[in-house]
Specification:
Structural class: alpha+beta
Strand order of the largest sheet: 2-1-3
CATH architecture of one domain: Orthogonal Bundle
Order of helices and strands: HHHHEEEHHHHHEE
Helix content: 25-40%
Radius of gyration: 43 Å
Strand content: 5-15%
Number of strands: 5
Number of helices: 9
CATH superfamily of one domain: Winged helix-like DNA-binding domain superfamily/Winged helix DNA-binding domain
CATH topology of one domain: Arc Repressor Mutant, subunit A
Length: 310
């Protein structure tokens, strides 16, 4: 009998998983991007793509938020957030500069490797000279091929960097909080109760005990001017901003700016008939007779300066 031969099945070819690169060497029109940017774990995809796009632009290209929003489908809010991401990790730096003509513009600097510009460049080794021999010719490193992205030319006059104040910076001091004429314990307790009760009607108006103690005299001033507690609550809680970051500062402003005037007296509210001028009564200095005149003096019969009747 012949020997039985067992033929093993061929091994299965391993199936490749993941990405497969099919690279073609670029001869021109390319930008070198480091893996520290392309594989950054702290940046979003929009921020990485935006950094690559900015580094591929020539010097002087516009990279404002509105310009980028018109170039890409992302919104201005998303692009602004991506620019802030790049600024936080050092790939981008934006500053406000004043030009020679007085205009203030935004200067943007893109870094292809953050922190590399601060590192000190290594000193070139000096050629070794052997006694009795001629000095060797200095060896120069080959000049790398220029990339498509040109370095920005140095301007003749560097723009002066000036700090631009924030539009929300406060330069005018706050007006003083109104003070009541008599800060009685009863009015102070009522004012503190009104301030502490505000969070029932507006949950964002949560005040500390120190804030209530500071704002209570201003509310007492409202109560002295016959303001109803309900009217005080409506004035302090109406149309609150969203989000509300500083409740005590907002209430201080409203207590001061919306303070009502004192109520007028009854004599100030007396009706006046239009077109009628009332001349007051005066007593004659000689005969004590009553007569109408704007100024005290003598009546008509006692006056000597009047011409006699013909």
């Amino acid at each position: 009998m012949g020997t039985e031969q067992i033929t093993a099945p061929p091994c299965a070819q391993p199936v490749a998983s993941g990405v497969i690169h099919s690279n073609v060497r670029h001869a021109g029109g390319f930008t070198v991007i480091g893996n520290h940017l392309a594989q950054h774990r702290g940046l979003s995809l929009v921020a990485i793509g935006l950094a690559v796009h900015i580094q591929s632009l020539p010097a002087g290209a516009k990279v404002g938020i509105k310009h980028l929003a018109g170039r890409f489908p992302e919104s201005e809010t998303r692009i602004a957030a991506a620019l802030r991401e790049l600024e936080a990790v050092g790939y981008l730096h934006r500053s406000r500069v004043r030009l020679a003509d007085g205009r203030i513009v935004t200067r943007t600097v893109s870094f292809n490797q953050p922190g590399a510009e601060a590192a000190a460049a290594p000193a070139a080794p000096r050629p070794r000279v052997v006694r009795g021999t001629a000095a060797p010719e200095p060896v120069f490193a080959p000049t790398p091929a220029p990339q498509t992205q040109c370095a920005p030319a140095a301007p003749e006059h560097q723009p002066e960097v000036v700090p631009v104040p924030s539009p929300t910076a406060r330069t005018v001091p706050l007006p003083p909080l109104p003070q009541p004429q008599a800060l009685t314990p009863e009015l102070q307790r009522t004012a503190a109760a009104i301030l502490a009760d505000l969070r029932r009607h507006a949950p964002q108006l949560v005040l500390s005990e120190r804030d209530i103690e500071m704002l209570a005299p201003g509310v007492v001033t409202w109560l002295e001017r016959d303001a109803d507690p309900e009217a005080v609550r409506r004035a302090l809680t109406h149309d609150l901003p969203v989000p509300l970051k500083h409740p005590a500062k907002l209430l201080r402003h409203r207590i001061t700016a919306l303070l009502p005037p004192p109520l007028p007296g009854t004599h100030e509210l007396a009706p006046v008939r239009p077109g009628v001028i009332v001349i007051p009564l005066q007593n004659c200095d000689r005969c004590d007779r009553a007569f109408r005149s704007r100024h005290p003096g003598h009546c008509r019969d006692c006056r000597t300066d009047l011409p006699a009747a013909a």
